[in-house]
């Protein structure tokens, strides 16, 4: 019997496209949020990445607005 272990690695950084998928938003919406300063990101060269903690902060802020 062959057993294959699956190791799940929690991501620390997301591309805007990956963040859009996680948030269930469109890609352009994520770029708009980044440009407006509503969603923090880090920039390295031409690449933009969004930290997992910034995604969580953004979602938590949405929850606070809706309550």
Write a concise synopsis of the structure shown.
The chain contains 3 helices and 3 strands, in the order E-H-H-E-E-H.
Task: State the order of secondary-structure elements, H for helix, E for strand.
Answer: EHHEEH
Please tell me the overall pLDDT: 90
Main sheet, how many strands, which sense, barrel?
3 strands, antiparallel
> Roughly what percent helix?
40-55%
- Note the overall shape: globular
N-to-C terminal Cα separation, in Å? 52 Å
Number of strands: 3
Overall radius of gyration? 15 Å
From the helix content, strand content and strand pairing, which structural class follows? alpha+beta
User: Order of strands across the biggest sheet?
Assistant: 1-3-2
Low-confidence stretches: none
User: What share of residues are in beta strands?
Assistant: 5-15%
Q: Please report the number of helical segments.
A: 3
């Amino acid at each position: 019997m062959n057993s294959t272990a699956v190791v799940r690695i929690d991501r620390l950084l997301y591309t805007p496209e990956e963040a859009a998928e996680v948030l269930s938003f469109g890609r352009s919406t994520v770029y708009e949020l980044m440009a407006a300063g509503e969603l923090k990101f880090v920039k390295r060269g031409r690449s933009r990445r969004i930290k997992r903690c910034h995604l969580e902060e953004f979602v938590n802020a949405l929850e606070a607005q809706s309550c």
